[in-house]
Design goal:
The structure holds seven protein chains of seven kinds. By secondary structure, chain C is mainly alpha-helical. The two termini of chain C are 27 Å apart. The longest helix of chain F has 32 residues. Chain G is an all-alpha fold. The longest helix of chain G has 25 residues. The radius of gyration of chain G is 15 Å and the shape is flat. Classes of the chains: A mainly alpha, B mainly alpha, C mainly alpha, D mainly alpha, E mainly alpha, F mainly alpha, G mainly alpha. Chains A and G meet through α2, α3 and α4 of A and α1, α2 and α3 of G.
Chain lengths: 130, 247, 166, 89, 108, 494, 83
């Protein structure tokens, strides 16, 4: 029953796995970045639901709101930072994607890493992540 | 296939963890019952002079994190510019619009009608960050959004003339610089770095001083964030084969 | 375009923005009012600089006064449109015969045309899909939907005080 | 009244699931954009409803951002879609 | 009480039009005709729900914000509909015709 | 309390702020940028040096940012180990920066040059902040600055392989950051705090051990990718070998170690070990991977034809050493790991900078091209040889000391298999290092390979190399200056 | 009642995420991803995080989506077929 009560957690873990699946399995690099973003938001969802309080109110003290009923503001502050970080990483990765496409003419990981000119082991470099 | 199994296993593991986690929303679980939160919620208003506790935490209690955050934004800009290069300074470049179709008059007019409101709304978000939801970066992102639509509709040529590089360039780092300056000011007041409150100097002025500094920092973040987002966008939109238009 | 005209335009924009600000802040405290005045003036100057000629000068106090009445009529049109569309959609056989028709409007300037085409989009069975100079391409769901266009055009002309010539 | 509003919000969000069907099957990108735009409008309404269910007025700011950003995204995306050089779907 | 009933009525109307819009979105044959239900029904649905909420909230500052939102919805949804329609037209998407199946819809 | 308690925060923030200010200088006087970029790092180094002796052996120097006491605000936490690492970071970044002034102007041009220095400073500041922080979430933030700037620095030359390597790095690095964030979420859910000192107390009597264990595993995976622990090292060889040489030096000599230090920190300062057997078994698993890394890295390094690629694989192997020191769980092993960070930082930075010299002067990347290099570039070759000796761990160098302690620690911990692995690793290192030394000094070069104007690299590029290689010697001979205090600190940690 | 609402939002989230991941047309994926962000903002409203809802609406739905679209516009729209 506790598991059902924590359905937000389950959802975020599910989204995390969807994202990770995309990052690992899909071969298109923009798709991988979408997966990355899904992963990120899932973790944000997880952290925010950690700070939730049943019947809580938003942590904004206008009009004499009762502090003891407010939800936990700390994860929200953290995730704000997290969102900014996520955008930054996405922007950089997309810039790299644009440059990669200019140079290789493909967005497919397999094609990108097929002609590994710098040596390295061929088998392991199919965009595996973890 | 292996990766699918791996992910399924990971999901099972995570589910197991989640099943063993404290129930969500319970006032007694560790996140909600720690003394950290109590102080934030009960004294946050007095100590940071921000009704929005989240803003109080961001700017004041955990200001160092936010300083890192604005550095991340700046770093993203530096990184994107290092990878893609900036649209060039001093000369006007025509944007090779792949579509070569002017945008719709209706959309142009509507955007022109809405942009002032979007900008004013973002100013409101920035300046009222401490009493209502929002704050520096949100405001910056909204301005960034308005500039995005402006750029896509009016083209890079026009928008990079309207928001020229000599305007963006000095403002991009404003977030970090403001934060550092305010932090150093706290040091000068006898406190630690990033102290917003210094009783020795301020005295009765203390509350309004803290509020003003918060607003200052938020404004810095907003300006910096907006400019960074716009610059990143321009740098990504710009075509490699820009055509030089001699002025 | 003289300096004085630009100034009055800015002032009007500033006043509208100030009203928007008051609605946003939801308070009449002095601090907020002053801040709002400063900010809206700032934003007005900024957007005039930003948008330049894209900002259509046709918004005048007269238009603003006529706007509520126009809006009411527009809303009535919208309600009629929705009734119409609902009837079509919920009809089991989907009685539509769409086509793209062209319509030449006599309304001058970007803003009236924009308002006109947006009104077309919101009124029965018609969606503007293209506007080039004075030529509108309108997607009509059923042929009879074209009939309402002229009336709508008159309404917009009234709003902006445009006289039909020629 | 709160329960009533919740039911309305529920209906609208289920409605949004149906709209996602259009966004999912296309067939053209414009269809998807339209679907997402409608989902966005519905989300906006749900935001407003939830604001009143939770009785927290400041969420209306979020709703305003929603409208503005929905406009921004739709217009920007359709501008990109109208460009030539896209392969047919 | 009366307030609540009026608000509820508005909400029901809005929801109804939303449902209609969704049905149209699914049923209609091509992008252009899908624009009709989406722009009109969504605008009216959203506006009437907003009005319902405005009635529900009564005279307060929130009313002003709701009015602002309603105005934005009015402006933006029509423009969005137009923008999508135009992009479809520019993107050479054929207009669906009843008489002889699919034919070129540009009228030229 | 003297003014020195403010030093750590300035060590971190001054490079960051100067990085933001640098574009203005770049706008006014492009030529001054490389010199100006050194100032903040020199400032940090001076502050770091002034801090020597001020930090208590048992405990740490805490600094409450914003004046908020720890569980509420963020705390900086500089213990002796962290301080030691911060000094290494300052020194090596300063030397790499000095090296890059001439080197980078050839590979990068125009506006990117300023961006290079900006990112360099951001990266150095982020590393310092990463080491100094006492807050788990702050760790994440600085990790992201570090990661972003390093992604961009790998790609900065803009050639196809560089961009590809950078993208591979992003594809592995970004999910790992997210995993760290998830781990932070797990820890937070079980304890309700983010401060490391506070976490230690609360983890000890937490009821949610399953959550904590998974959090720990996620931390190890997340930082393991950044640290290129064996199965997660795929990004490393490409990124390290393709990046400009000063950046390779930084990535290989510092970034990887800093990430390892994060695991070290999490393991000993946060989870404080011993609370559950499962932590220990996680660490055992890490030990197995580390042993595999030692062997795999060594073998792969032998197989390489490209000089920088070889050094990169050598890094994979050496990360294994450091992890073996950590998993030994004895004061000697930890001391060895820390000292190996110093040694590895110096030696690897030196090797990469030497490789940079070869590339800069002659454009040679392949190992075979180095035959007879001694005649034209004796200084570079000698420095390379000295650093290689340290990598192989031959007595007077720091490499020997560190490996001695690693072996000692593992013997004390009873992990005799790892002792064998360490010895085999040393033999492998000897094979790949001495091959190059043999090529350099005892083989005749190819026809015309080393002719033309016979000049060694410029003094400004030789000086950093020599400082680094003499550093390995210095810290080898004078190891008694550091080892006792490190041992004290480690004993306190355990 | 509130639970049902939350569950619906979660279903919406998962559905949009799956759609975004499975779409072969990259542009469609990105368009759906913007819907995902919008719904995520709704989720955050339910979890009483107004600041985040604002940020997500502005950043996730606005900035990120447009950046993605710009990137797709600069590269290619379809996923390459299997070989």
């Amino acid at each position: 029953m506790r598991l059902f009560h924590n359905y937000h957690y389950i959802a975020s873990m599910l989204l995390f796995c969807i994202g990770l699946y995309t990052v690992i399995v899909r071969r298109n690099i923009i798709k991988k970045l979408i997966g990355l973003n899904i992963m990120e938001t899932s973790v944000f969802l997880f952290l925010i639901s950690l700070g939730y309080l049943d019947g809580g109110i938003a942590p904004i003290g206008i009009g004499g709101a009762d502090p003891s009923r407010m939800v936990n503001p700390l994860p929200q502050a953290l995730i704000l930072t997290g969102i900014v970080v996520a955008v930054s990483v996405t922007a950089l990765a997309l810039a790299l994607v644009i440059l990669l496409y200019r140079q290789y003419g493909t967005l497919d990981v397999d094609r990108l890493f097929r002609d590994e000119e710098t040596g390295g082991e061929e088998g392991e470099e199919k965009g595996e992540t973890a | 296939m292996i990766s699918l199994v791996f992910i399924a296993a990971l999901f099972a593991l995570l589910l197991y963890v989640v099943a063993n986690m404290p129930p969500m929303g319970d006032p007694d679980n560790p996140t909600n019952s720690s003394e950290v939160i109590e102080r934030y919620l009960e004294k946050g208003g007095e100590e940071t002079h921000a009704d929005n506790v989240v803003t109080g935490i961001i700017i004041n209690y955990r200001g160092y994190d936010t300083m890192g955050e604005v550095t991340v934004i700046f770093c993203a800009l530096a990184a994107v510019l290092a990878v893609l290069g900036r649209e060039r300074r001093g000369r006007i470049y025509a944007y090779v619009d792949r579509s070569r179709v002017p945008s719709s008059v209706i959309v142009r007019t509507m955007v022109a009608l809405l942009v002032p409101f979007i900008i004013l709304f973002s100013v409101y978000t920035i300046l009222h960050g401490e009493i209502s939801p929002g704050g520096g970066f949100q405001g910056g992102a909204i301005v960034g959004g308005s500039m995005i639509v402006f750029t896509t509709i009016f083209g890079l040529l026009e928008s990079s003339q309207r928001i020229p590089q000599r305007l963006r360039f000095p403002l991009e780092g404003s977030a970090v610089i403001t934060f550092f300056a305010v932090g150093a000011l706290g040091l000068a007041g006898g406190g630690n770095f990033l102290t917003f409150a210094w009783p020795e100097i301020a005295g009765n002025l203390q509350p309004s001083l803290v509020v003003w500094l918060t607003v200052l920092v938020e404004t810095g973040i907003g300006l910096g964030g907006a400019m960074v987002l716009i610059s990143i966008l321009f740098s990504m939109i710009r075509e490699e084969e820009e055509i030089a238009v001699v002025p | 375009m003289g300096g004085g005209y630009a100034f009055s335009r800015r002032l009007l924009l500033c006043i509208i923005l100030f009203a928007f600000w008051i609605a946003l802040t939801a308070t009449l405290a002095l601090y907020d009012l002053v801040l709002g005045a400063v900010c809206s003036a700032f934003v007005a100057v900024l957007t005039v600089a930003l948008l330049g000629r894209a900002l259509d000068p046709r918004i005048t106090p007269m238009v603003l006064l006529r706007l509520p009445w126009f809006l009411l009529r527009l809303i009535w049109e919208i309600i009629k449109a929705n009734y119409d569309v609902a009837k079509i959609i919920l009809h089991p056989r989907l009685p539509i015969d769409p086509e793209i028709v062209e319509y030449r409007t006599y309304l001058p300037g970007d803003l009236p045309r924009t308002v006109f085409s947006d009104s077309i989009t919101l009124t029965p069975g018609t969606v503007t899909v293209e506007l080039e100079e004075d030529l509108l391409k309108i997607h009509c769901l059923c042929p009879y939907h074209q009939e309402g266009l002229a009336g709508l055009e008159r309404m917009v002309a009234w709003l902006f005080g445009v006289k039909r010539h020629g | 009244m709160d329960d009533f509003l919740t039911v309305i919000a529920l209906i609208i969000s289920l409605n949004a699931v149906v709209c996602l069907y259009r966004a999912a099957i296309g067939p053209t990108a414009q269809d998807r954009l339209l679907g997402v735009n409608i989902v966005g409008t519905k989300t906006l309404v749900v935001v407003i409803l939830v604001t009143f269910i939770q009785a927290e007025g400041f969420f209306l700011d979020v709703a305003i951002v929603y409208t503005l950003l929905l406009f921004v995204v739709t217009v920007a995306l359709s501008r990109y879609l109208e460009a030539e050089g896209w392969e047919e779907m | 009480m009366v307030q609540d009933i009026v608000a509820g009525a508005f909400c029901c109307v809005g929801t109804f039009f939303f449902l209609v819009g969704t049905t149209g979105l699914i049923r209609m044959p091509d992008v252009f005709s899908r624009l009709h239900p989406s722009t009109k029904c969504d605008t009216l649905g959203a506006c009437s729900l907003i009005v319902g909420m405005a009635v529900y909230s009564g005279w307060s500052w929130e009313l002003l914000k709701l009015i602002i939102i309603a105005c934005f919805v009015l402006l933006s949804s029509a423009t969005c509909g137009h923008a999508i329609g135009r992009s479809a037209l520019r993107g050479d998407i054929k207009c669906w015709r009843r008489k002889n199946g699919v034919e070129d819809g540009h009228g030229t | 309390m003297g003014a020195y308690r403010h030093f750590p925060v300035f060590m971190v923030t001054v490079p960051l702020v100067c990085a933001v200010l640098l574009p203005f200088l770049g706008y006014l006087r492009q030529k001054w940028v490389p010199w100006a970029a050194m100032l903040p790092l020199a400032f940090s180094s001076v502050l770091g040096l002034l801090l020597i002796g001020k930090i208590p052996a048992e405990g740490y120097l805490g600094y409450e940012l914003g004046g908020w006491p720890p569980p509420w605000g963020i705390e900086l936490r500089v213990d002796r180990v962290g301080h030691f690492l911060m000094l290494i970071v300052c020194g090596i970044t300063l030397l790499a920066l000095a090296f890059s002034r001439r080197y980078i102007s050839r590979e990068v041009s125009g506006g990117r040059l300023t961006a290079y220095y900006v990112l360099f400073l951001l990266m150095s500041g982020a590393m310092l902040g990463f080491v100094a922080t006492g807050d788990v979430f702050n760790l994440f933030v600085f990790m992201e600055i570090l990661a972003l700037s390093s992604y961009a620095l790998v790609a900065i030359t803009g050639n196809r392989n560089a961009v590809r390597a950078a993208f591979k790095y992003v594809l592995m690095g970004a999910p790992s950051s997210i995993m760290v964030l998830l781990a932070i979420g797990f820890i937070y859910s079980a304890t309700g705090t983010l401060n490391m000192a506070d976490l230690t107390l609360r983890i000890a009597d937490s009821r949610y051990s399953e959550v904590l264990i998974v959090a720990y595993i996620l931390f190890v995976i997340g930082f393991g990718v950044k640290a290129a622990l064996f199965p997660l090292h795929m990004w490393l060889p490409d990124a390290h070998s393709i990046a400009p040489s000063p950046i390779s030096a930084l990535l290989s000599g510092l970034l990887v170690e800093v990430s390892t230090f994060a695991i070290f920190r999490i393991t000993f300062s946060v989870f404080s070990m011993g609370s559950s057997g499962l932590f220990a078994s996680t660490l055992d698993a890490v030990g197995i991977f580390a042993a595999a890394a030692v062997l795999y890295g060594g073998i792969m390094a032998i197989l390489q034809k490209d000089l920088k690629m070889m050094i990169a694989y050598s890094t994979v192997s050496h990360i294994g050493y450091i992890f073996l020191g950590i998993t030994a769980m004895t004061a000697e092993g930890l001391t060895g790991a820390m000292y190996h960070m110093l040694d590895h930082g110096l030696a690897k930075a030196c090797l990469f900078l030497c490789a940079g010299n070869f590339i800069f002067v002659k454009g040679y990347r392949r190992i075979e091209d180095l035959k007879g290099a001694w005649r034209q570039m004796p200084w570079t070759c000698f420095a390379f040889a000295l650093a290689s000796i340290s990598v192989v761990a031959i007595p007077p160098t720091a490499g020997f000391i560190s490996k001695w302690y690693l072996i000692l620690g593992n013997i004390k911990g009873g992990n005799y298999a790892y002792v064998v692995v360490l010895l085999v690793g040393a033999i492998l290192a000897a094979v790949y290092c001495f091959r190059i030394i043999y090529y350099m000094f005892f083989q005749p070069g190819k026809e015309g390979a080393w002719e033309g104007e016979s000049r060694d690299a410029a003094p400004s590029m030789l000086a950093p190399v020599w400082v680094l290689s003499l550093g390995t010697l210095f810290f080898g001979i004078l190891s008694y200056l550091l080892i006792p205090s490190l041992l004290d600190a480690m004993n306190f940690l355990l | 009642m509130g639970t049902a609402l939350n569950l619906t939002f979660i279903v919406l989230l998962v559905v949009t995420a799956l759609l975004a991941v499975l779409a072969r047309d990259l542009l469609a994926a990105v368009i759906i991803f913007s819907a995902y962000s919008l719904i995520m903002a709704l989720m955050w409203q339910r979890l009483q995080a107004p600041d985040l809802a604002l940020t997500e609406a502005a950043v996730g739905a606005g900035v990120t989506t447009v950046l993605f679209v710009v990137a797709i516009f600069k590269t290619r729209r379809r996923e390459e077929e299997e070989e």
